[in-house]
Every structure is written in structure tokens, then in C-alpha cells.
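In this section we walk through a basic example: taking a raw amino acid sequence and producing a predicted 3D structure, encoded as C-alpha cells. The instruction is simple. Fold the sequence below.
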Amino acid sequence: FVTQAFARYVMVDLSPEPADPPWRNDERVTWVQGDVSAPILEGQQFDRVISMCVLHHLRDTEAALRNIRTWLKPGGTFTFFLPSDPGFLNRLNRSLFVTPRARRLGFAHYPVVNAREHHNHYWGLKEELLYEFRDFDVRRSYWPLGIPLADLSVYSVWNVTKPRAATTAVAEARE
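The resulting C-alpha cell sequence is shown next.
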């Protein structure tokens, strides 16, 4: 999904690395098998962290978000895709398009798997995110209508940027 030039790209996934990945000959790419909620990348920092459809599935969202905070360099951005589950348009999209397609592909129990896998709902995640990144610049866009309401969107894309300089009002008052 990343087409821009990069010096280093680290992928984290619960699954083992695929047997013959398309990046196999690219020394800049590293696969780390692990849980984003665990301290798997301690001491490492990145310009960008990207997450696609992960937050709904986590058992320990708080730990994951705190890890991501530490992984970002000053000025770094956390970009993530957040389904508006269980918002109205998300449910409508799932019932009209996603579930029928999954069934045509032979995935008969998609609604049950989805229900079991989505431990966190949009509104709870939104509050967690706004709290954990309260001192960051948070920008969101909503699809398809652009209206910042979970019931009127299928998903949102968030860009959360870490401040470049960590100054506090207390420190400024002392100077």
C-alpha cells in the first residue's frame, strides 16, 4: 500500500510471514510477527505508522495505542482506517454488499465471525483514540458523505500527528 520512497518498512502481524512474499528481495522491508499491544518494537521510532482494520479486533486497545505513541518520531503520523461499526451505513453496507459477497465466496458464517472478531465498537474506539492522542493533531475524513458521524459513514480515515516539540505550559512559565 505504500508507493512513496522509504528507507525502512516494518510490518507487524499476528500471522507468520508469508512463505513467498512480494517483498522477499527488498532488504528495507522487515516482517515482525507479534501483537501491536505487546512491547515488540521497544526503542524503535518511525515517521509513519499505518493500521488497516486492526483496532476493532484488539483485546487491549489501550496498550496498543500507547505503543503506537512511543513508536512515532516527533512530527510522525499514525494513519488508520476505522470502520464505523456498528453505525447505520456500515451495517447497511455489510447486509447489502459484504455479507452476500462473502456467502457467494463460500464464507457462510461471515456475520458470526464478524461479531466474534469485533471486540470494540466505533464509539468506544473514538473515545480511546481522542484520549490517548489528546495532545496530537487529529484529522479525520469520513466516507462516503464526508459527514463526521459514525451512523452516516461506512468508515473514517484518521491522521494523528505527534507534536514536533514537547513543551508544556508549566515549563514555559518557569523560563
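Looking at the output, two observations stand out. The mean pLDDT is 90. Residues 88-104 form the longest helix (17 residues). In the next section we compare this with other chains.
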